Amino acid sequence: MNISILSIGDEILSGDTVNTNSAWISQKITRLGFNVVNQVTCQDNKKEIISSIKFLLSFSPDYIIMTGGLGPTQDDITRKVIFDFFNVQEIFDEEYWQELVLKYKMLDKDVLDSNRSQAVIPSIGEVLPNPFGSARGYSFKKNTTKFFILPGVPSEMKGIMNETILLELKNIVIKPLLKKLIRTTGYAESVLAYKIKKITDLDHGCKIGYYPSVYGVDIRISSTSSSLLEKLFIGIQNILGDICFSHTKTPIEHLIVKKLSLMNKTISIAESCTGGLLGHRITNIPMASKVFNGGLITYSNKSKSRLLGIPKDLIDDHGAVSEIVAGKMSEEVRRRFETDYGISITGIAGPGGGTKEKPVGTVFIGISDNNSTKVSRYMFGKDREKNKLKTSQAAFDMLRLSI
Fold this sequence. Notes:
Distance between the termini: 46 Å
Structural class: alpha/beta
CATH topology of the largest domain: Molybdenum Cofactor Biosythetic Enzyme, Chain A
Shape: elongated
Strand order of the largest sheet: 2-1-3-8-7-6
């Protein structure tokens, strides 16, 4: 079954407000097995709203979900436009109005005349209760398409969706859409697609999508058949092997901390170009204190020598951004914090500081334990912030593969 989404609001079009509603609604209903065929955003303008509705109706969707413009302010015109479109009369719900008045008094808030619009209901159609606010939603039918009109405030929209609409949609799904997630890092989308091309080119009865981000590429496969989905999932997993680090949305650092905790192992970190980002990501996890002994941000050459004991002539001869210095940093931070693993990062985040031999984006990551030291060189781009994020992700992945 097909669903279209219409978001109404000048603030969304201007970029002042990020349209998280459409993303949230799409995620919820696609998991149930529905297809989102359109997403449209329009102005708080009667002509534009009507035009957008007619456009969506031209695709004959089973449902149209609309959000925005049901509030009490002057620019909230959706209610009146919708009532006119469906040719229904406005009725003032006195009982609901008294509930609102009492609610506002309990919150020690003034009740304004503009708030009376919240108590208006249609002469024909369904009113959808709002568990988290005063602007109730509405439901209408136009030929074979059912409309859900919801407030734009995310918490209120979600409340109505969860307690009313999703329950209704769930009851009519014949074949729910099943999904599997394969999370990877360190490989480009094109490389992953080439690696699994032999299996994805076959008629596997599943839909496959690649979703790249600064942290890696998520591969999502979906099907209404659990057996076909499982067969493709296992096939891809067997090809990619250790390239895959998770089958859930759990960030890689959570998996690292959990694994180290089970192993009763500890880590310490020496960071340069990432400026403490690796330590920040680890300490976002409640159980991090069990495995993370501490770290040093040795951003300058002087701090590398003073705090880690890296010989000055070693830095002078090879450069702070080098394989030998990264290895030494990981060994020294491990020794100083008396941990099982030491991690080091040194690189050129950009946008300046690069050379022909070591351009911007050059990063060395070192990992040492009681038996050995390993250093890997990475080449990222010219964006400073992305380089830091990619470096932290690469360091976690190196540690994951080491343990």
